[in-house]
User: What shape does this take?
Amino acid sequence: MKPATAAALDEAAAILGGGGLVAFPTETVYGLGADACNERAVARIFAAKGRPQFNPLIVHVKDLAAAARYADFDGPAKALAARFWPGPLTLVLPRHADSGLSLLVSAGLDTVALRVPAHPCAQKLLAAFGGPIAAPSANASGAVSPTRAEHVAQSLGSEPDLIIDDGPCSIGLESTVVDASGETLCVLRHGAVTLEELRTEFGSVADASAAGETAETVKSPGMLARHYATSLPLRLDATSADPDEAYLAFGEALPPGAARTENLSPSGDLTEAAANLFALLRALDSQEYKAIAVAPIPDEGLGRAINDRLRRAATPA
Ligand code: TXA
Ligand code: MG
Assistant: This one.
C-alpha cells in the first residue's frame, strides 16, 4: 500500500503496462485495475476476485474522446457522457469490432461498459498509463465494495501488485450503470446519478431493477438474450474428437482426429485459458465443423468461471 504520490502512480502505470494489478481509488469505490487491452491481465482480475463467473467489467478512460475510440456513441449516449462525465456514471455501449479491448473485459458480449472517473488519483493513473483500465470493485467475490484502501487489503490480501491509498471514497457507492446500447436507456444498477435526474434530462429511462433484478442478474452474460453463444453446439468434457469436430484443448492431452485443434493453455494454466477462451471459441465457431468438442477443465479457481461460461454456451437458448 502506498500513498498517491507521483512516484507511486508512475510505478502503478508500469505495473499495469507489465500486465499486473493495481488497486486505486475512484470517487465511488476502489477499483482493481488491469490493462483493458491485455487478456491475460484481465483474466488475473477474475482470478484475484475469486469469482465463479465472468461478469463484464467496467473500462475506465480519461475522457469522452478516449471512450469514443472503443464504442459507438449514438443517440443520447454522447449527451449523457457530456452531462455526467467525469463522474459516477457508467455507460454500456456497442463496442467497436476493432476496439482492441480484451474480449474477457466484456465477458464475450458485443457491448462494453465505459466510465470516466472524476477522482484526481484515477485521472492521474489513466494519464500515466495512457490507455484504458479495466476495473471492477476491488473486493473478493461476494464481499462489499471497498471505500478505503484498508478494505482492499483486507479483502484481496496480496492479490493486487500495488494498492494506491488516497483516503476514503467521497461517494462510497458504485457508479450508476446505464445501458445506452439499445433503443431506450435502461438503468442496470442504481448509483449516485439517480433515475430521477436521468429522467428529468433524458425523458423516458427504463429501470431494470424495477423487475426485482439487479444489474448482475439481468445483465450477467448467461442471462442476456444477446450474449455471445457459439452457433455450433459445444460438447463438453470431451477426451476424444470426431473428424468433423473442432477441438478446444486444455493441457497436454491432444486427442487425434479433430478437424482443427486449438489449445486454451498447453501448460494447463487456468489464467491463460481464461484469457484465450472467448477468442478461441470464436475462432472455432465455423460452419466447416459440426460441433466444438471441449476438453475437461478442472473445476477450481478460474476453472469454475470457465466451466460456468462453457455450460451456458452449451445450453441451447
Ligand atoms: O463504481 C464503480 O462502478 C466501480 C469503480 C471501480 O468504477 N466499479 C464497479 O465494477 O462497480 P463492477 O465490475 O463491480 O461492476 C460492474 C457492473 C456490473 O453490474 C456489470 O454487470 C455491469 O457493470 N456491466 C459491465 N459491463 C457490462 C455490459 N457490457 N453489459 C451490461 N452490464 C455490464
Ligand atoms: Mg462489484
